[in-house]
Design a protein that fits this description.
Shape: globular
Radius of gyration: 19 Å
Order of helices and strands: HEEEEEEEEEEEE
Number of domains: 1
Number of helices: 1
Distance between the termini: 47 Å
Length: 189
């Protein structure tokens, strides 16, 4: 019986685009941590899927792009169980874009839908962050009043190693607009 279910899942993934895939779930959103790299002292950001999720973050349109680590869990059954002779795992999720809608709470939709490039790979049976700039330049008007709340609703699209197009579950994240220097509180945004 398990083999039949696994075969059906593999066939579903192989020939079509699977929307709102219950096997690719956004479990949380984490802020980055700045780390110093190399002797030159350059800075980089790391996104740890084990970090605690924050409910919302500050956003200063002149200082950041709202970049976060979107933690995706890949629960797609490995095809190695279906065809042990080939022993290939074709279910690694390779993220390539996020589809994002914007709303200023109390005012309605703003800026329309945006598609932004992302980076990340989530192995079969694993969890990993996908780096997503949720608020790229021009996504919302720079004139949004401080104290306003921006709701971003998004999902991540990509392919499995076998070439199937899939995307994650949908997720919302809130931002509080601020105007003073450093108000976002995180250099990795």
């Amino acid at each position: 019986m398990m083999n039949r279910i696994a075969i059906l899942l593999v066939l579903a993934a192989a020939g079509c685009k699977i929307k709102n895939n219950a096997s690719l779930v956004i479990t949380k959103v984490v802020a980055g941590t700045a780390v110093t790299t190399g002797a030159g002292g350059g800075a980089a950001c790391t996104f740890n899927p084990g970090d605690v999720e924050t409910d919302f973050l500050g956003y200063n349109p002149t200082e950041n792009t709202g970049t976060l680590g979107v933690v995706v869990q890949n629960a797609i059954l490995p095809s190695t169980n279906v065809n042990p002779a080939l022993r290939t795992d074709a279910e690694t999720f390779l993220a390539h874009q996020a589809v994002i809608d914007y709303e200023i709470v109390g005012q309605g939709a703003v800026g329309g839908e945006r598609i932004v490039p992302v980076d990340g790979a989530v192995p079969t049976g694993g969890t990993a962050p996908v780096i997503v700039p949720l608020l790229p330049a021009g996504a919302v008007p720079a004139t949004v009043a401080p104290g306003s709340i921006i709701r971003t609703t998004f999902h991540i699209e990509g392919k499995l190693v076998d070439g199937s197009s899939v995307h994650t579950s949908e997720r919302e994240y809130l931002w509080v607009v601020c105007a003073s220097t450093g108000c976002a509180g995180n250099v990795c945004l």
